[in-house]
Every structure is written in structure tokens, then in C-alpha cells.
Amino acid sequence: MSRTALLVPCYNASRFLPRLRAQVDRLAPAFDEVLLVDDASRDDTAAQAEALGFRILRLPHNLGPGGARNVLAHASTAAWIHFHDVDDELAPDYLSRVRPASAGADAVFHTVDFIRETDRAPIIRWQLSADALARDPARTLLCSPLPTMASFLRRDLFLRLGGFDEEHRCFEDGDLHFRVAASGARIAWLPEVLEWSLRHDHGAGANQHYCFRCRLAFLERYALSQPASLHGAIAEQAERAAVMLLRHGDKPAARQAIALAARLGRTLPVTANPFLKLASAFLPATTTLRLQDRMRSD
């Protein structure tokens, strides 16, 4: 098979590097290339990585996760790339699982488990419906955005699509995978769990308010760039973003999401509840959406 690369962005990651070294040493078969980038850390990440035998690039300024990964992809010489976060865990037989699926494909997606770092309690399983993915890959990956570590990609496809968005530091992974699907790339799906994301309170994903502001920005972009066949799905995702933003008390952003859904033909809230239908005639959509969210939570 063509050369493969494990690409690992690092920021203040010194405490995770011994664990990463042990993981890389257990891989069988091994990646042809393991490349790290130090995203202008404030600790001794780069020096410790070199001491552990890693090849690491040093960035003079912090670029964020998307920018750091783009640097890695451009520096790699491999045909296939997998982005791995330094604090996560990778199946030792990762390549033996994804290689067969990559034959005739441009991208392989697989299941990822999010677990709590402290006690490894399950949080969420990121998986897709194989039938839905085969039937409508763009809609599927729009409505079920996958995290960064859920893909094994042809490097030339990644570069052709422009890599990760560097402006936003959350949902940039779901955006990339959606663009892979929307480009017409050949996709293979593996339902196996091949990576475990150890969740803690230090990453951008811990700030859900920020994440859904990023999500809304991407949805606004899709409404302008994607065909009408996806507008309904974009509007549904705008509704979800509005609910999440209201949970964080961000009415201005929630109103923006509601307006986006309305432009795409979805008047919020969408409900069969007669009380909410009546209330929506008199109350702002932000109020009725909040009421609906509370009723669903009870």
C-alpha cells in the first residue's frame, strides 16, 4: 500500500508525550511516517518530543488545531494521513483495519468513542448509519459531524479541499468531513471503534457555547454554497444550534440561527404540540424554542 502518516498536533502537551510514545511503539503495523507539530507551546513540548525520538516541527505562533494540522499535512510525504490528538488513544492494529477498506476509496471513516479521562466512563459514541452514508453522504455528514480522529484520508484529497478551516477552532473537523462528502469523494465506512478520545476540561470542545457559535458560522456558509437539496438539513441543524445557544443564554446568536432556518423555509419551533403552536403566534421564537427544550427535557 501507499505510504501512511500519523500526524499529531501538540500544544502544551508534554504530559501526554510518554503515553503517545508507548502507543506509537505498540502499533503493528507501524505508520511509515509519524510527524508532530508544536503549536507554539508554553511548556517544553518540543524538547520532550525530540528526547522521545519524535520528529517535531516548531511553529513560531499558535495557529490552533486547524492550522497546525494543515502544516502537518503539507509537511508529510505520505499518500494517506490520519490525524491523531496527542491526548487520545489509537487501536494498535489501526492500519490493518483501515487499509483493506481504503482500496478504491478516497476516505475511510470509522467509529470513535469519547470517554472521560479520569475514569474512562463513556460519554458518546461517534458512529454513522452505513445505509444513510451510502444513500446521501453529504447530508449524513452534515447532520452527524464526525470528529477529526474518525478519518483516514488521501492526502491529495485533503490538500485539494483546502484542508481545515483555520478561522474556527471547533466544528472544523465536522466541516472538513462534510466537504469531503460534498466533493463526491469515494467513502468507505468501518463501524469499528478504532480511536478513543479522552475528554477533559482543557480543550475547545469543553466550551459548548463557543462550539455552537462556530457551528452556526459554518451553517451560514453552507446556506450560501450548498445546493437547495441540502437546505432542509442545514435548517434543521440551525434549529439545533439555536437551542444550544439559548441554553447558554446567547439570544443574539440564537436569533441569527432562527433567522437562518427561516430563510431556508423552516419556521421555528417545529412542533405538533398545540400549546406551543398557539404560543408561537404570540411569543418570540426564542421563547417558544426554550419552552420546547424544557418540555423535552422533563
Looking at the overall shape, the CATH architecture of the largest domain is Alpha-Beta Complex
Tell me the CATH topology of the largest domain: Spore Coat Polysaccharide Biosynthesis Protein SpsA, Chain A
Shape field: globular
- The CATH class of the largest domain is Alpha Beta
The named CATH superfamily of the largest domain? Spore Coat Polysaccharide Biosynthesis Protein SpsA, Chain A
- Main sheet, how many strands, which sense, barrel? 9 strands, mixed
Query: Which radius of gyration do the C-alpha atoms yield?
Result: 20 Å
Which structural class is indicated by helix and strand composition? alpha/beta
Tell me the number of helical segments per DSSP (H or I, 4 or more residues long): 13
Q: State the distance separating the first and last CA atoms.
A: 53 Å
Proportion of strand residues: 15-25%
Low-confidence stretches: none
Helix fraction by DSSP (H/I, runs of at least 4): 40-55%
Number of strands: 9
**Number of self-contained structural domains:** 2
